[in-house]
Amino acid sequence: MKIIVSGGGTGGHIYPALAFIRTIKQKHPDTEFLYIGTSKGLESKLVTREEIPFKSIEITGFKRSISFENVKTVLRFLKGVKESRKIIREFKPDMVIGTGGYVCGPVVYAAAKENIPSIVHEQNSVPGLTNKFLSKYVDKVAICFESATGFFPKEKVVLTGNPRASEVAGIKKTDILARLGLTDLKPSVLIFGGSRGARPINEAVVASLESFAQKPYQVIYVTGDVHFDKVKKEAEAAGELKNVVITPFLHNMPEVLRSVDAVVSRAGATSIAEFTALGVPSLLIPSPYVTNNHQEKNARALVEKDAASLLLESELTSENLVRHIDQIVLDAEKKKRMSESAKQLGMPDATSRLYNVMLQLTGNRQAREK
Ligand SMILES: CC(=O)N[C@H]1[C@@H](OP(=O)(O)OP(=O)(O)OC[C@H]2O[C@@H](n3ccc(=O)[nH]c3=O)[C@H](O)[C@@H]2O)O[C@H](CO)[C@@H](O)[C@@H]1O
């Protein structure tokens, strides 16, 4: 089978696409993939790093307010559709899938116009503009939260979960803690602010370094690439680091998640799919700066089931951060309960479900997975 994948902008749209490609490549090595993204997006780095064939088109997102920029965006969209049609005609895919972010708009739209079976994958409980627009044209809309159903044409919706869940669920425990300079003998907490890092979380963590130095647990603290230099300087000024390692980005997140006792993070949908697939208890600090406050809705879906704790950014202080972490990590009963509840929400078979939807669409019955 030949598949075009498109998704970009942030890690939350790119990692599910990469996880899907890697998992399918392992099971069906003869599957050919082509990834279409933008040259400026994070995808150009992450995809080429994996040696997956990559082509770029030029496109920008819509502004929500009326502006001259939007006129230019429409023109770029039309140009993007033209470029995508050309790539599609050359590559001749059996299927096109978009995993969100504005780049997949013209690609998936072009696929539908070329009569190629198409799917969009929506990671969030509340969809973004691009996927809502595309849902009118595609054959299927794959979702991760039941609550997303109402935003799309009902007959097209399939609950598949997030392929990144399948990828992390298959990861074995490694010696990653030792490689990070940490020990196996203490509980470990991972702190990160989504794929790009989050300034408010960084500020609270830097203010907590002194407290962490006194704790019976250790912290892996990921700042986000762009924030690293500043945080490093502030941390150095705060004194000697104890119990904490600081790093700009983790390229081996699944391995790390497998080894930690709890995680503190934004409530991005792909991150949540990973925590639940592995049953990692989490303290979620939703970003209030996202469309329709969707991260808080993502987070509340876990909190309601006792799979996560919630700390709103408006209440994010060093004291509250440390207190919430202590409440999870230092209470073995609570940690176990949260872990079990999280795991019940996990969908480790997401990639197979998504692949089966594709096979149904392409009519490739023989290859259909049992
Ligand atoms: C600000 C914003 O618009 N955020 C959105 C974006 O978040 P964002 O891009 O932060 O997405 P997620 O939190 O869903 O996923 C982050 C991904 O990056 C990975 N990772 C992160 C840090 C690191 O050092 N290494 C690493 O590999 C995580 O393991 C995960 O796979 O897309 C998500 C999925 O559509 C949305 O739910 C978020 O609301």
Automatic annotation (TrEMBL):
In Gene Ontology terms, what is one molecular function of this protein? undecaprenyldiphospho-muramoylpentapeptide beta-N-acetylglucosaminyltransferase activity
The record gives the membrane topology as: Peripheral membrane protein
Q: What is its EC number?
A: 2.4.1.227
Database matches in Gene3D superfamilies:
Glycogen Phosphorylase B
- Check the record and name the SUPFAM superfamilies matching this protein: UDP-Glycosyltransferase/glycogen phosphorylase
Every copy of the Glycosyltransferase family 28 N-terminal domain together lies at: 3-143
Instruction: Spell out the InterPro entries in the cross-references.
Output: GlcNAc_MurG, Glyco_trans_28_C, GlycoTrans_28_N
Pfam families documented for this protein: Glyco_tran_28_C (PF04101), Glyco_transf_28 (PF03033)
Q: Where in the cell is it found?
A: Cell membrane
Q: Does the keyword Cell cycle apply?
A: yes
Belongs to which family?
A: Belongs to the glycosyltransferase 28 family. MurG subfamily.
PANTHER family in the cross-refs? GLYCOSYLTRANSFERASE, UDP-N-ACETYLGLUCOSAMINE--N-ACETYLMURAMYL-(PENTAPEPTIDE) PYROPHOSPHORYL-UNDECAPRENOL N-ACETYLGLUCOSAMINE TRANSFERASE 1
What's the protein here called? UDP-N-acetylglucosamine--N-acetylmuramyl-(pentapeptide) pyrophosphoryl-undecaprenol N-acetylglucosamine transferase
Species per Swiss-Prot/TrEMBL record: Falsibacillus albus
**Could you tell me the gene encoding this protein?**
murG
